[in-house]
Amino acid sequence: MSITTPLFEHHKHCDEIFADAEAACGSGDWTAGEKAFSLLRDQLETHFGSEEELLFPAFETATGMTSGPTEVMRGEHRQMRDLLVQMQGALTARDSDAFGGAAETLLILMQQHNMKEENILYPMCDNALGSSDVGATLAERLKLS
Ligand SMILES: [Fe+2]
Ligand SMILES: [Fe+2]
Predict the structure, then answer these.
(1) Are 120 and 2 in contact (CB under 8 A)?
(2) Single pTM value for the model
(3) How far is the CA of 121 from the centre of ligand 1 (A)?
(4) Domains of the chain by start residue, with CATH
């Protein structure tokens, strides 16, 4: 198992919760929507936090690259957090059109972001951090229940 395997798996986990939240809110099932969306926010925040607090600093320390791909990824996390705030607002207002619009933008952004991480940044991290214990900490923090 490589260091970033838990992050790969957690991307898939978040995709599934995202689909649940979108389906529920799109059909006006706000009770299920609230539940799925709050889980989505929680899981995405755990994921972004694991990257920002553990993986990225370890990569930056190992390579000296502080203004490269990790900085771009942090910026995209900010954009995704903004969209989650918009989605929360739409959910509170029971506005399925607004929710769907923000959700569509988030989905595209998230897919592009995850693809960049999975194809470029995570392999770079695996190379740079081959023997560090960051992987075990990530696995613990992102343990799927
Ligand atoms: Fe990320
Ligand atoms: Fe990620």
Answers:
(1) no
(2) 0.94
(3) 10
(4) 5-141 (1.20.120.520)
